Amino acid sequence: MQLVVDTHTHTLVSGHAYSTVQENARAAKAKGLAMMAMTDHGPAMPGAPTWVYFENLKVIPPLLEGVRIIKGAEVNITDYQGRLDIPDTTLRKLDFAIASLHDLCLIPAGIEENTAAMIHVLRNPYIDGLAHPGNPQFPVAIDRVVAAAKQYHKLIELNNHSFTARAGSAPNCREFAVQCKAAGVRVICGSDAHFSTGVGEFDHVRRLLETVAMPEELMLNASAPRFEAYLQERKERIAKGDPGR
Ligand SMILES: [Zn+2]
Ligand SMILES: [Zn+2]
């Protein structure tokens, strides 16, 4: 199966990544991608930019090297009540925002706390989905996280980088994939590239999607129009406001 959108990439601005957005776009084009989300880390990550960086992403052209650039962020969850490190006023101007737990930004807690943090974040209208929720450093009740994603029409990421960078992720990622399929929750596939050569690398997640026979319509990255339609859904959700908050 072909995945034509990469929903998770970093530029050197993240503080521990090493390519520019233009280099990433060139790599995306070479891999045959139609779209690439730039999702640099939020300010709580050591070395990451301030919120002002995310405010000014509009200066980047919508197309680079023929690849549609989605202006986004990987927002840090900074407490177990789901507090985030980029303000809502900035998040609402972005095309796309994924949120994640990192041990550099929050000390890992138990399953109850981690699960509560993810559910709080899924309720936030400015957040589109969870990045690498299968990270075993932050164990969660996968069934409850997937149920919340279903309830709030949010996305669960299957992160290619987790298979090599976050030891022990594979069984959790598989469980997320199986439960998303069963619940009809849409998944996104991110390379989580920290260097241009990693953009569009989906070997591990592609294998996982094939193993669990993920239905085509649940894979947002498999079709550029489907992902565009999701971005429109985000805009409408934000315009409406969310009664869950
Ligand atoms: Zn991350
Ligand atoms: Zn990342």
TrEMBL record:
CDD domains: PHP_HisPPase_Ycdx_like (cd07437)
Ranges where the Polymerase/histidinol phosphatase N-terminal domain occurs: 5-79
Database matches in InterPro entries: PHP_dom, PHP_phosphatase, Pol/His_phosphatase_N, Pol/histidinol_Pase-like
Any one GO CC term of the record: cytosol
Keyword annotations from UniProtKB, A to Z: Hydrolase
Statement: the UniProt record of this protein carries the keyword Hydrolase: yes
Superkingdom to which the source organism belongs: Bacteria
GO MF entries: phosphoric ester hydrolase activity; zinc ion binding
Name of one Pfam family that matches: PHP
PANTHER family named among the record's database cross-references: PHOSPHATASE YCDX-RELATED
Protein name per the record: Putative hydrolase
Organism: Hydrogenispora ethanolica
Native organism taxonomy: Bacteria, Bacillati, Bacillota, Hydrogenispora
